[in-house]
Design a protein that fits this description.
By secondary structure, the chain is mainly β. It has 1 helix and 20 strands. Strands 3-10-13-12-11-14 form a 6-stranded antiparallel β-barrel. A 4-stranded antiparallel β-sheet has the order 7-6-4-9, with no helix packed on it.
């Protein structure tokens, strides 16, 4: 019995060894295909070209769509809702009657009291059914003017210097995929919230077809700055030394060594940085050469 158990354990052990060897071989194989017979002291790198690009620095924020004008209507007397003359979606003009209120006073007969709209727009909500009790603090209806909508967002204070009234932005809502709406910065708060370190700003957008609805969740793509035809490279390909000098690595004439090239930088965004001096359009630089130093041996793939 013991001999059989020992044999089984030996078989299991041999099987484990075989599986481990196969795993090590499979892990090494992809690297061999990529690197071939490259010596250990040679860095396998890729390159990119310096080229002109239109660079934009943008800020993406989110908020809720609201009608530029919204008015909640209240009765002027206590009583009962006698009748709603308009329903949701109906157009309404300023001072037009939306609902009628019957005074709730025993032994007296009065003409119904009107609840007029205070703005021109459409009825967004009717809150009550006829017969329900109302007071002067009971909301009866909501009227909105959505020909223009507004979106309020909180901008981190570090971006305040990049904002100005009339600044353009692109408004998008999930309910209308692929549809962009042009928005303009309309109001900048004069104060910064001491807790969030942000400033409230308001964008407005024309909404002539009423595609944007109050309450929609919106994303606002704010264009902070822009530079056209800027000679640039990927931001990850530019380094800065301890003295603050920016530099890149370029391949030597024989493509066998990495050479440090000092540069001056200008405009930048999240992806690219402008090169104002040290390189020309079409020059080749090493793309994200991690670990490479001036004079390192390289092989370009």
């Amino acid at each position: 019995m013991k001999k059989k158990t020992i044999k089984r354990l030996n078989y299991v052990l041999v099987g484990i060894i075989i599986l481990v060897c196969i795993g090590l071989w499979m892990r090494r194989d992809p690297a061999e295909k990529i690197l071939g017979n490259v010596p250990m002291d040679v860095f396998v790198v890729q390159t990119e070209r310096v080229q002109p690009r239109d660079l934009k620095r943008q800020l993406l924020m989110s908020g809720n769509v609201k009608a530029l004008e919204e008015a909640t209507l209240y009765p002027r007397v206590n009583g009962k809702l006698l009748k709603n003359l308009l329903k949701e979606g109906d157009a309404v003009k300023r001072n037009q009657t939306v609902s009628l209120i019957e005074r709730d006073e025993v032994g007296a007969v009065y003409e119904p009291v009107v609840v007029p709209s205070t703005i021109t727009g459409v009825v967004g909500r009717v809150y009550l059914d006829p017969g329900e009790n109302v007071t002067t603090t009971t909301p009866v209806a909501l009227v909105v003017n959505q020909s223009t909508v507004r979106i309020e967002v909180d901008i981190p204070e570090r971006y305040i210097g990049d904002l100005h009234k009339g600044q353009s932005a692109v408004l998008r809502v999930d309910a209308l995929p692929g549809k962009d709406f042009e928005a303009k910065l309309n109001i900048l708060s004069p104060v910064v919230d001491s807790m969030s370190r942000a400033m409230a700003v308001e964008f407005v957008a024309d909404n002539p077809k009423a595609l944007l609805k109050s309450g929609m969740f919106a994303k606002v793509d704010i264009s902070l700055a822009e530079k056209k035809n800027a000679l640039s490279v990927s931001k990850k390909s530019v380094y800065t030394d301890e003295a603050g000098q920016a530099y890149v690595f370029v391949p030597s004439s024989d493509k066998k060594q990495a050479m440090r090239q000092n540069v001056k930088t200008g405009f930048e965004n999240n992806d690219y940085v402008e090169i104002t001096d040290g390189l020309s359009s079409g020059d080749e630089v090493l793309a994200f050469a991690y670990g490479v130093k001036d004079g390192s041996k390289i092989e370009i793939k």
